[in-house]
């Protein structure tokens, strides 16, 4: 669901990460960076699970939900 993706990105931004649904590790990333990211993802998934349980995913979004694929802007 696109709202879940948007909420994931939103919460990760609040935690200081510009994240998407993919993670690309690079050589400069040290173990501490990866652990910090994984801890943020774990916390984010817990928050999302709570929002799913109380049906508040959409209402938790600050902006609009994500859109899929390429769409005309007309």
Key terms:
single chain, 74 residues, mainly alpha, 0% strand
Plain-language structure description:
The chain has 74 residues and is mostly helical. 54% of the residues lie in helices and 0% in strands. It contains three helices and no strands. Helix 1 packs across helix 2. The protein is globular, with a radius of gyration of 14 Å. The chain starts with a helix and ends in a 14-residue tail after the last helix. The mean pLDDT is 88.
Please summarize what this structure is.
The protein is mainly alpha-helical. It has helices at residues 2-14, 31-53, 57-60. The two termini are 24 Å apart.
Order of helices and strands: HHH
Q: How far apart, in Å, are the first and last alpha carbons?
A: 24 Å
Query: Could you tell me the strand content as a percent range?
Result: under 5%
Overall, the morphology is: globular
Quaternary organisation of the protein chains: single chain
Rg, Å, rounded: 14 Å
Counting DSSP H or I runs of 4 or more residues, the number of helices is: 3
Which spans of ≥5 residues are poorly predicted at pLDDT below 50? Answer: none
What structural class should be given to the helix and strand makeup? mainly alpha
């Amino acid at each position: 669901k696109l709202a879940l993706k948007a909420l994931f990105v939103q919460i990760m931004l609040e935690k200081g990460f510009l994240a998407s649904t993919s993670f690309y590790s690079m050589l400069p990333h040290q173990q501490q960076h990866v652990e910090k990211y994984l801890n943020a993802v774990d916390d984010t998934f817990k928050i999302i699970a709570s929002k799913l349980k109380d049906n508040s995913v959409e209402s938790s979004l600050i902006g609009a939900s994500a859109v899929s694929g390429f769409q005309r802007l007309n």
